[in-house]
Amino acid sequence: MKTVLLIGTLDTKGREYQYVQEKLRAEGVTPFVMDVSCKTFESEFASQVSCREVAKAAGTDFVAVSQMERVPAQKVMTEGAIRLSEKLYQEGRFQGVMALGGSNGTAIACAVMQRFPVGVPKLMVSTMASGDVRGYVGWKDIVMFHPVGDISLNRMTRQIFANAARAMAGMLKEASAEKEDKKIQIALTVFGVVQPCAERAKSLLEEKGYEVMVFHTSGTGGMALEELVKEGRIDAVLDISTTEVTDEVVGGVLTAGPTRLEAAGARGLPQVIMPGAIDLVNFKTPDTVPEKWKDRVFYRHTPHITLMRTNIEESECLGRVFAEKINRAKGPALVLIPLKGFSAYDSPTGPKAICLDGRPAPRSWFWPEADQAFYESLKNHLDLSRVGFREVPLHINDPDLAEMAVEELDRLMHEKGKLRA
Amino acid sequence: MKTVLLIGTLDTKGREYQYVQEKLRAEGVTPFVMDVSCKTFESEFASQVSCREVAKAAGTDFVAVSQMERVPAQKVMTEGAIRLSEKLYQEGRFQGVMALGGSNGTAIACAVMQRFPVGVPKLMVSTMASGDVRGYVGWKDIVMFHPVGDISLNRMTRQIFANAARAMAGMLKEASAEKEDKKIQIALTVFGVVQPCAERAKSLLEEKGYEVMVFHTSGTGGMALEELVKEGRIDAVLDISTTEVTDEVVGGVLTAGPTRLEAAGARGLPQVIMPGAIDLVNFKTPDTVPEKWKDRVFYRHTPHITLMRTNIEESECLGRVFAEKINRAKGPALVLIPLKGFSAYDSPTGPKAICLDGRPAPRSWFWPEADQAFYESLKNHLDLSRVGFREVPLHINDPDLAEMAVEELDRLMHEKGKLRA
Question: Do A148 and B224 touch (CB under 8 A)?
Fold first, then answer.
C-alpha cells in the first residue's frame, strides 16, 4: 500500500484535506498529513504530524510562530516541514507528496516538494497555478493543478479535488522496469542560438546508441542538469550552451547559480565543453537592463528578450572562471573552441546591433577580439596537463563541429571505460 | 473503456507519443491521436486524425500550412484542432485530453483543452510549465506537468511521461456521485480589500446550508464565474468584488473581459451586487501604468501591485456601465451600496496615497465624492422598477453589511423559488 504525504494548513483547509483523504483512501492510498498551519486554531482535524511538531523541528515553538507576521512564519514552517519530511522520506514512510493551497500553502508545500527526486510524484492543487509558477515548480517535476475556484468545498471543486487525488493515486502505481533504461544517458545543453549544433549532436549520439537528455539553458535547465548529475542519473555531459555562466558572472537574468559547470567534473563524468552562447548576457524587456550598460551593444531577440554582447574585459574574466571550474574536474574533460563564433549571432552575418534605446550600437555584435579574449584567457588558466583544449577553425553551428564533439565525447567515454576496467 | 485525446506534433514527437500511448494502454485507456504538426514530414507514426485533416477542418490545406511561418501555422492548426475535437467530444468519442509539447505544442494543445468543461481531465506535459502559464491554463482546470528535460525519451523523461499517463488514467476513473452535490451552489467573489466581507458572507451562507464557490477577481476568476454560470453550474451570485469591471472600463490589467457581471442576469439567477473594490484600477509594477496617469492618486500594495484610485469622472462612467449591465438581468437583482467605503483602502483610515513616482499624491485615497459620483450615476441609470437598490450607511467590510447581503440573497432565492413553484 502506497502512502502520500499531504502538506496542509489545517487551520483554514481542514475540511478540504479531509475530503482529499477520503478520495485517496478510496483509491487504496494511505494519506499521511503534516499540518503547516501558521496560526493557532481549534483543531477539529487529525494530522499525523502537528503544526507544533513542525515548528519544533525548525527550532522554535508554535506559539511564537503564530505571533509572527505571515512571511517569517511561512519561512519557519517551511523549514520545519522540509526537515521532517526529508527524514520521513529517508525512512520510506511515503512515496508521493500532495497539497492544496493558496499563495501561502503553495509556497510551503512546493518548497518541500522541490526537495524530492525526480520521479517521486508531486502534485500541487493551487490557486496560483494559472500564473507565473517558476518559483513554485523550479526545475522539478511538480504537477500544478488549477482548481478554478478557491480551495473550498463545493460541487465543482469536489470534482477537481477528486481528480487530483485520483491523479496522485495513478502516479503512485508501481512502474515497470524498462529495457531501454539500461542505455547510457548523455546530458546535452541547448539554447536557441546554438540549436543547429545541439540537434546535430543529439542525432549523432542517438545513432551511437546513447540516450540524450536535453536541457534548455534558461536557468532552471542548468540547475536541473547539475542536480541530476549529482544524483547519479547522468553518465556524460556535452555542454553546448554555457550562457548561464555568462549570466552568473556578468549579471544577466538566466543564471543557474554559481556552481554551474561543476557537478560533472566533481563526479568524474566525461565531458566535452563547447562554450556556446558565451557572447550574450540575457535580460527580459529593455527596462530590466541596468542603466550603467545603456550604451553597450544589444540585440532584441524578441520584445521580451534583450541580449547584451559580452565585452573584452568580461570575456577575459569569463575565460578565467571557466578554467577554474573545469580544472577541478576529476574525470576526462575536453574544451572545444569554435574559432569562427560562439553563437548564431556571433558571426559576420549576425544581426545589426543597437544601443539599449534603439540607436545604432557603437560596434557590431560579431566581435572576434572579445571571443579571442575569452579563449586566450581560458587557455592561459587551464591546467593543460589534465584538461584537453582544442581550437577549431569552425563556427559552433557548423555540422562538422557537432560531429567532432560527439566523436571526442565517445572517445573520452571509452577511454574512461578502459581505465575503469 | 475510457479514451483520451492526445494532441501532438508527430513530426518531432512521434516516439514520445508512441511511448505515452503504450503507457495509457497498459492502464486500460484507449489513446486517440490527433496530429497537429505544422511541417510536412515522413510519417512513421499512426494517428487517428492526421495533420491534413486538421488543416482541412480549418478551411485550408496542409501544404499551405507547412509553408507558413510558425505563428500563422500554429493559428490554423489550433483552429482545426478545436473544431474537430469539439465535434468528437460531442459525439462522446473521448473523456480526457492530454498532450506533450514545447512552446508551439503547448500553445495548440492548451487552446484546445480550454474548450472543454471543468472536470474533463486535461493534462499538459510542457517545457513551459515552470514559468508564466496563465496564457495556457486560463481559468480552466488544466494540469501542467513540468518534464524537467526536453520532450525527448530518456531514462528520466520515461519516468515522468509514465507518471503523466498514469495520472491521466487515474483521473479518467469513474467518479461516484456524492450526496453533497445536491446542495445549492452560490458563487461569491472576493479580493484582498474586501476579504472580511467575503469571509463573513461565506460563513453565513454555509450556515444556511448553501455551498459557496469562491472566485478571486484577478481576471481569470471573473471569467470562470461568468462561464460557469453559463454552463448552469451556479444557482445564485453574491458579487462582492467587481474590480474587474473597473479594470475593463478604465484600463487596468485585471479585466475579465467586457461581459463581466452579465451572465447571472442573462440566466435569470438571483444576485446581490455590492460593488466592492470599484475604487481601484490594478496595475503591476509602476512602469506598467500609462504615462498619462503619472500624477494621479496611487497606492503600492506590493512591489508588483500598483493601484490607481478611480476619479470622479471614471466613477460616474462606471456607475452607468454597472446600471446598463444590471438592467438586463432577467432574474431578481439587488444592488447594495456601502456608503462608508467600497474597499479596505476606501476609508478615512486608509493608506497614504502617492503619485506614480512616490511623491505625495494630490489628495488622499479616501474620496467620498468619487464614491458618490459612482452610486448616484448607478442609481440614475438603474431601472428601479426591476432592480433593487439600497444605500446602506456602512463600510463594505462591516459584518452587518455581509449579514444583510446574505439575508437579501436568501430572500431573493426563496422568492424566486415561489415564483417557480
Answer: yes
